[in-house]
Structure to design on (309 residues):
């Protein structure tokens, strides 16, 4: 696993569970019959192309949006009945979260702290320094990146049990982004916090997640441990000194290919250990297997409904 697993005992109730949820906005179906469960004490990456339904799902988790059909529960409580006991255990960081523009960062932190008995002032002070955020500046004066830093403080400093992140670091520079990723792993290690993060920066997601959920057109097309995905998807490099490789491969686990009669690169979906050996024998070729990173796996997941039959 890529992320650190919390050592504290996992609760019996999942931080979030959905059963057959659908969300419609007029004629638009943002989510269609989605069933999933977010395991406790994990960092889960929520992936999908623009318009896949990621933000809608995150808003349902936090009770901002209610499903049109099906059932959803956060900390075991239906999302239409979330109240102070649940909301104070929930942290939400949005890409462009609404903040009061005339306030300074310090005023905004103090304002939010008044709602959370568990607000950690020592953590707040440390994060201000590590994220290089000036508490004296007004929200309206902040760059997009500094607004995201402020959002992370607002979401982290009450030590939530479930942290929901929607493109939280897209405007941060690489150095600060690396620090923010370390903070998420730290919260998991120290607090047993569950993290659900949606981001298009897949190189960052890969560094911290141990589970991946992928949406496509409002439906779940993948829900698996990241290690399992890396064992399932791979690139095979075929070499045939005799130049006998075909122009097409009929095997259903071959998702894409390019090359010529002497060498070809295939993207495949199979977790059978013997598959590569049999493939090499069938085509009289040598097969070198290379694992794929998350950025390479993602398009295969997003297209899995039409590619895998």
């Amino acid at each position: 696993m890529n992320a650190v697993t919390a050592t504290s005992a996992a609760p019996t109730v999942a931080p979030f569970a959905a059963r057959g949820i659908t969300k419609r906005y007029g004629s638009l179906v943002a989510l269609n019959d989605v069933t999933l469960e977010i395991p406790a004490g994990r960092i889960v990456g929520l992936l999908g192309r623009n318009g896949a339904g990621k933000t809608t799902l995150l808003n349902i988790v936090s009770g901002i949006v209610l499903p049109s059909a099906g059932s959803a529960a956060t900390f075991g409580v239906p999302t239409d009945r979330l109240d102070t006991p649940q909301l104070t255990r929930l942290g939400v960081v949005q890409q462009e979260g609404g903040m009061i523009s005339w306030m300074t960062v310090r005023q905004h932190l103090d304002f939010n702290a008044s709602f959370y008995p568990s607000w950690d002032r020592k953590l707040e002070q440390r994060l201000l320094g590590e994220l290089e955020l000036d508490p004296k500046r007004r929200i309206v004066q902040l760059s997009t990146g500094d607004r995201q830093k402020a959002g992370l403080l607002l979401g982290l400093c009450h030590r939530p049990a479930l942290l929901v992140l929607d493109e939280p670091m897209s405007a941060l520079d690489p150095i600060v982004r690396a620090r923010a990723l370390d903070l998420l792993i730290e919260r998991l290690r120290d607090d047993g916090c569950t993290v659900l993060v949606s981001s298009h920066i897949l190189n960052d997601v890969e560094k911290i997640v141990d589970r991946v959920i992928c949406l496509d057109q409002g439906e779940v097309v993948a829900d698996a441990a990241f290690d399992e995905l890396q064992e399932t998807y791979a690139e095979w490099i075929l070499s045939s000194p005799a130049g006998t490789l075909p122009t097409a491969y009929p095997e259903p686990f071959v998702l894409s290919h390019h090359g010529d009669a002497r060498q070809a690169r295939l993207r495949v979906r199979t977790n059978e250990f013997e598959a590569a050996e049999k493939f090499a024998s069938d085509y009289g070729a040598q097969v070198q297997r290379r694992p794929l990173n998350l950025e390479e796996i993602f398009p295969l997941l997003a297209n899995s409904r039409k590619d895998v039959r």
Notes: The longest helix spans residues 174-191. The mean pLDDT is 91. The first strand starts at residue 16 and ends at 25.
